Structures are given as structure tokens and as C-alpha cells.
Amino acid sequence: MGTLVQFTIAGADEDAALQAIHAAADEMQRIEDVFTIYGEQANTIKVFNASVAGEVVALPEEVESLLLTSLEVAEQSDGAFTPAIGALSLLWGFSLPEPPVSPPSAADIAVARSGVDIKQLDQTDVGWRRLSRQTRLDFGAIAKGYAIDRGISVLRELGISHAILDAGGDLRAIGDHAGQPWRIGLRHPRKAGVTLGWFEVKGDISIVTSGDYERFFIHQDRRYQHILDPQTGWPAARSRSATVITAGNTTLADAWSTALFVRGSDALSLIESRGMQALQVDAEGNIHATKLSLVSFHPTEEH
């Protein structure tokens, strides 16, 4: 998943906590192996992405379930999030071992972008097929959230009631910290080591932030970051960061934080209508937010 995963556990015996952490980490690694489109690990998604257009490929139940969830978000977000972005992702190469130093050609981007329409994904009685060679699955904007949800499930199965599972800006908190709320900082998208504020969280809450500051390069004085706009094929330009908050569903929060980042503040009302809450920092550094009743947010005086 290209990030550091951090476990914080409270109110548990140390040996029990460590055992639970190892089990949850193993489950998250399994999910990485199932969903990655990078590296040497063989999986069904890579088989699908290499299939001939029109060839039917049977997907495991877990993959098909996350694909169906992804397609729902793609439709609801008008394509700001899409699981069919794999050709564009590979072309830009932000997740490759050697990160990019210059953008692809406009012609290559246009070709790769032709595959992002989810109508190019067709479900049959026995599997799925892609109708275009440029349509490739990429769960990079939702699988990390799913892995966190599975990790929390494993922790709970092993008796952990108070924890934070944080995977590089995607996190889920359960319970509390010795009776007090968990305190979670919101990173400033332009100032290293500085926060825009912090959330106080109790119960079961997912907070996912998509930002333009983790993976980017500068080419000819222009900044190119890794969150791509499927409609243009170029890095999305309406946000610096986008945070989505849900009641214990990191999978959806992950996908919708990407959609919010791409669409900008006009997606806030859509996210709110779906029972979620959000905070977005636009391209100029201005903060926009829905009502934040699931958490308590305390902005820093200067941001």
C-alpha cells in the first residue's frame, strides 16, 4: 500500500496487544497481495488487466465485492472516483519503484484516459470482462481503507476494544484512550510538521485524508501530484487535501476522500447527503467543511 501502518492500542495486556497487531498486520498484507497491481505478486486483478478485451475473467468473491462497492461510488461521484483508472495510474507511475520526474505526453494520457469509463467493465454470469484494452482495474484509492477495516475486525476478534489503526492518513479509531477521546492531528498540506487542527474522537470513527503532499514532483516549475482526475487524465487541481469522516467505514471514506479531492468543495453537499462528513482544503489553501458532528474539530489559530 506504499505507506507506513501504525497501530496504537490502549487498555490491553501488552502480549495480547502484540499478538493482535501481528494478526491484523498479516491480514492487511494479505489484502495488499490480493489487490496490488504492482510488483511481482500474482493475483486475479493482474490477470484481468492483462486479459484480451472481451475475455471473461472470474474474480474472487472478495475482489468482486470491493469492485461492486467501487462502481457504486464511481456512479454516485460522477466518475471523480473510478476503479477503472489503472492504465492512467501505470502511465503516470507515481507508485512505481522509480517515481516519475516528468509528465507523460498528452497523447499517451488521452489514450490511457479512454479506459476510465466504468461502462467498459461488463459483468457476466461467470465473471467480468473489460471492453477496452485501456480499461484496467486499480483499487489504490479504496483498498487501503478496506484493509484498515479488516485490520480493525481482526483486532476486535482478538479482544482489542480501544485502538487506532493508521495507514498514512487513512485511519479508524475505536473506543477511547483511558476514558478520554483520541486526539488525531490533521496535517497542513504545505507546512511540514504543522497541523491545521486536531480531531477529538470517541467510539468507532474513520477519518481518511487524501493529500497532494505525499507523492509529487516538480517539472519546469509546475507541481504534479499523484491523485489523478479521471475526466482529464492529469493530476487533480481543485484541492490540497480532502478529509472524509464516517461512522466506522474506512472503505467508503477512502474512496470518497479521493472523489472530494478531485471534485473540490462542490462535492461536500453530496458527501453530506450520503451520511458522511468532510473537510476540504482548496487549491488556494481555504478550508471548506460540512457540519462535523461525528468528531470535535479544533483548528489551530494559524494555518
Radius of gyration (CA) equals: 19 Å
Order of helices and strands: EHHHHHEEHEEEEEEEEHHEEE
Mean pLDDT: 96
Low-confidence stretches: none
**Principal-axis shape:** globular
- Name of the CATH first level of the domain at 162-299: Alpha Beta
Assess the beta-strand content as a share of residues.
15-25%
In this structure, how is the largest beta sheet organized? 7 strands, antiparallel
- How many helices in DSSP terms? 8
Q: What is the first-to-last residue Cα distance? A: 29 Å
The CATH homologous superfamily name of the domain at 162-299 equals: ApbE-like domains
What is the secondary structure topology, with strand pairs?
Elements: E1 5-9, H1 14-35, H2 44-49, H3 61-76, H4 86-92, H5 106-113, E2 121-123, E3 128-130, H6 143-157, E4 163-167, E5 170-175, E6 182-187, E7 195-201, E8 203-211, E9 216-219, E10 222-225, E11 239-246, H7 250-263, H8 268-273, E12 277-282, E13 287-289, E14 296-299
Antiparallel strand pairs: 1-4, 2-3, 4-5, 5-8, 6-7, 7-14, 8-11, 9-10, 11-12, 12-13
Helix pairs in contact: 1-6, 3-7, 6-7
